Amino acid sequence: MRVTTILIALAGLGLAACGSSNPKLMKFPAPKTGPDEFLVVPAKPLQTPPDATLPPPAPGYANRADATPRQDAVAALGGNPAALNSGTTAGEAGMVTYASRYGRDGSIRQTLAVEDAEYRRRNQGRLLERIAGQDVYYDAYERQSLDQQAEIDRFRDANVPTPSAPPAELKPE
């Protein structure tokens, strides 16, 4: 009786060890600490309003002291602030036109979200994986994944210039 209790407790501990402390990250590495990109943009000086009355706050309207924050940030980081107004850059415009030559669906994100949820519901893992709360996201999509090493080898064999990739032994699991 005592041996059975110990075995059950060990099995429970073993299953608990398989769990993830943060299932939302889904095996993505934790963000690295680095410079704060928001410290690059210099702050504009404070201004006294012309009169004591201030307009009521309105969501979506520009701030009096910082009317164009996105454009200022892009300019400070060396980009072209005019590209923000069009939504796409000149280089992207041709690609967008070509990709939408047969029309485009404005609700594609919602459609894909529903299809993805249904696909993951059908491929939710084995019984013990579900009981233990094991994340099977990558296992569900493994058949649809590209083998980056095989693709790089295929392109290099065809003399296509390719970017570098991590060595095969360093690939994430």
Automatic annotation (TrEMBL):
PROSITE patterns reported in the protein's UniProt record: PROKAR_LIPOPROTEIN (PS51257)
Positions of the UniProt region annotated as Disordered: 148-173
Annotated keywords: Signal
Signal peptide: 1-16
Top-level taxon: Bacteria
InterPro entries: DUF3035
Biased composition (Basic and acidic residues): 148-157
Pfam family, one: DUF3035
Protein name: DUF3035 domain-containing protein
Protein source organism: Qingshengfaniella alkalisoli
